[in-house]
Design goal:
YHYH domain-containing protein; three-stranded antiparallel β-sheet; mainly beta; YHYH_dom; 1 helix; signal; 257 residues
């Protein structure tokens, strides 16, 4: 029996073959149909995204990531009575923000190029979603509302997420699927992937990261060196934990709508 992860990898491989077939197709008059051309292929890292919460496909030379916005893991923010509810540990019911996941529609979509490149200048991150995690939930930066995360940090669950003011999202290293390791965290809005605090190429914390937490090396998803981000291995002041991504974006960011 084929495992779910191998099935996803097979689907990605088939998507790559389909891309080649479509890009070589002509219309009934023998002319190239530009609207149907798909170039590029899905990166192997997309096999790590939860297929119950995300739908990922090629569209021309871009890849589209559609998400329910809901985390695939347990959290107290599902609310009592939900099968994924767990009692709060690092926070309390009193300190949690009032909204619960089933009360909010977090569906969103991100479209990025299949071949992201370093831009000529960086772009600062903004409030709201700046990336999509492998769990399906959003990634936010180190700001909450119009200020630093400090005051809102008390509402974060065990995996560094909460709701406020909109969809469930992570500010801190999402311990539900990456904990001081090399695991894939998700994709940032400029099309570059972000990994945990360790580097697959060396097996330890990378020492050549730029100001955004990025560098160029191989990963568990590719044998060719490519640019990607890591969660920077520096504790955030008030939480004793690690911020997922502050920025700036090293590529040109797209909107997450």
């Amino acid at each position: 029996m084929i495992s779910m992860k191998n099935l996803i990898r097979l689907s990605i491989a088939m998507a790559a073959i389909t891309a080649i077939i479509i890009s070589c197709s002509n219309d009934e008059n023998g002319n190239d149909d530009d609207e149907d051309i798909v170039s590029g292929e899905l990166h192997a890292a997309f096999a790590d995204f939860d297929t119950d919460e995300t739908t990922i496909y090629l569209e021309g030379s871009n890849v589209v990531i559609e998400t329910t916005g809901n985390p695939s893991h347990d959290t107290p923010y599902w609310g009592e009575g939900n099968e994924k509810y767990i009692a709060p540990t690092v926070t309390t019911e009193e300190d949690m923000t009032p909204t619960r996941i089933p009360q909010y529609d977090g569906t969103a979509s991100l479209t990025v190029t299949t071949t992201p490149e370093i831009a000529s200048s960086t772009t600062a991150t903004q409030l709201g979603a700046i990336g999509i995690a492998v769990s399906g939930a959003a990634i936010f930066n180190d700001q909450e509302g119009n200020g630093a995360l400090d005051e809102a940090a008390v509402s974060l669950d065990y995996t560094g997420g909460h709701i406020g003011p909109a969809e469930y999202h992570y500010h801190l290293e999402p311990l539900a699927f990456t904990n001081d390791d090399e695991n894939l965290v998700g994709i940032i809005a400029d099309g570059f992937f972000i990994y945990g605090r360790k580097c697959n190429a060396t097996g330890t914390y990378p020492n050549d990261l730029d100001a955004s937490g990025g560098h160029t090396s191989t990963t568990q998803h590719t044998n060719e060196a490519e640019y990607h981000y890591h969660i920077i291995n520096e504790l955030y002041s008030t939480t004793g934990r690690y911020i997922v991504f502050v920025g700036p974006y090293q590529g040109d960011p797209s909107s997450i709508n």
